[in-house]
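Incident log, support desk, overnight shift.

02:14 A customer reports that sequence design results differ from what the structure should imply. Their input is reproduced verbatim below. On-call engineer (initials T.W.) acknowledged and began investigating.
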């Protein structure tokens, strides 16, 4: 899910910066939370190995998302910076469209920092750190996709001036969100 799509949010919550970011506080994750990440990773990678686009699997690999434990955004961002100039920062939840697009235009991906509860292992509505980082960060390591996401952020900022955000939101939903990608002759 996108962090976007809330026009009624006006001010960042207390503790968040003017750009809506918060520290990840990586040291605060419990060992149970790290173990849950590992469990989620194992389940997903088994399903994705034969199905996912090569660029996605390459991203998982070069970003070393298969290492045990929840990724530290500082380390992850250092790897991304070297590859494509992107970084990942934490936000408290939904952020306004303007802030969301501005981050993308600056090659910054906003991610949830919480991880789901064990009883939510199959599904939860709000994007948690596994959804955002495992689901979206790998393609940010791909130079073409990295440029596309920045252009999308710039387009989003423009769309706000023309009241045509809905079109851009739909584009995001059916490409980035669902991972639609053409590889050779395969979709
Ligand atoms: Fe998402």
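02:41 Re-run completed on a clean worker. Output:
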């Amino acid at each position: 899910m996108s962090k976007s799509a809330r026009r009624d949010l006006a001010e960042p919550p207390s503790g968040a910066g003017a750009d809506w970011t918060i520290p990840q506080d990586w040291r605060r994750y419990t060992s149970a939370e790290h173990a849950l990440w590992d469990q989620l990773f194992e389940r997903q990678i088994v399903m994705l190995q034969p199905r996912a686009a090569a660029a996605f699997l390459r991203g998982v690999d070069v970003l070393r998302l298969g290492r045990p434990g929840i990724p530290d955004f500082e380390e992850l961002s250092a790897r991304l910076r070297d590859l494509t100039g992107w970084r990942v920062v934490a936000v408290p939840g939904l952020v306004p469209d303007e802030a969301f697009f501005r981050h993308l235009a600056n090659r910054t991906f906003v991610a949830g920092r919480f991880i789901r509860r064990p009883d939510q292992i199959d599904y939860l509505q709000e994007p948690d750190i596994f959804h955002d980082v495992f689901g979206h960060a790998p393609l940010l390591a791909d130079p073409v996709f990295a440029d596309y996401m920045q252009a999308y952020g710039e387009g989003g900022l423009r769309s706000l001036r023309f009241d045509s955000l809905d079109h851009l939101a739909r584009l995001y939903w059916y490409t980035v969100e669902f991972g639609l990608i053409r590889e050779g002759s395969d979709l």
